[in-house]
Amino acid sequence: MRVSIEVNGTAVAGEVPDRTLLVHYLRDTAGLTGTNIGCDTTSCGACTVLLDGESVKSCTVLAAQADGHEVTTVEGLAGGSADDRLHPVQRAFREQHGLQCGFCTPGMMLATVSLLRENPKPSRDEVRTALEGNLCRCTGYHNIVNAVMDASGQEVAR
Ligand code: FES
Ligand code: FES
């Protein structure tokens, strides 16, 4: 089937098998590999993107379901390549060392954008609850939670 999705403000159209998952469409048809595949079973959140502004795990959404809709991936967050064009969430992850190995980071950042849109000043507990579906296998969540607090203009924990 033919699918056309507005990805990061640009229409991306392609002919794909009906069962193509959105994550594969983004990586293979749109050529945007910042959306990672960690588990393929809706567990890890590495594939999180925004679909019409709502965070979704793109390994559980068919590309056909996103046909005619808007998707934002991590590549769409920054306004440009210079540091000062980073999205505030990207800047905070960098400054708070929330990147760690970085495999989970794109999903974490998209989930954070979604959280802060709904709850601009979350508590640390609310941040942890909101990121429950995003797994990080590295050193822990301390710096990630700090990054979200920083992005929301709140104090970080040392
Ligand atoms: S790859 Fe989608 S949740 Fe893990
Ligand atoms: S930084 Fe998240 S899995 Fe490594």
UniProtKB/TrEMBL annotation:
Q: Cite the 2Fe-2S ferredoxin-type domain residue spans from the record.
A: 1-77
| Keyword check for Iron-sulfur | yes
Report keywords, A-Z: 2Fe-2S, Iron, Iron-sulfur, Metal-binding, Oxidoreductase
Q: What is the lineage of its organism?
A: Bacteria, Bacillati, Actinomycetota, Actinomycetes, Pseudonocardiales
Q: What pathway does this protein act in?
A: Alkaloid degradation; nicotine degradation
Q: What is its EC number?
A: 1.2.7.4
Q: Which InterPro entries match?
A: 2Fe-2S-bd (IPR002888), 2Fe-2S-bd_dom_sf (IPR036884), 2Fe-2S_ferredoxin-like_sf (IPR036010), 2Fe-2S_ferredoxin-type (IPR001041), Beta-grasp_dom_sf (IPR012675), Diverse_Oxidoreductases (IPR051452)
Q: Name one molecular function that GO assigns to this entry.
A: anaerobic carbon-monoxide dehydrogenase activity
Record-given protein name: Carbon-monoxide dehydrogenase small subunit
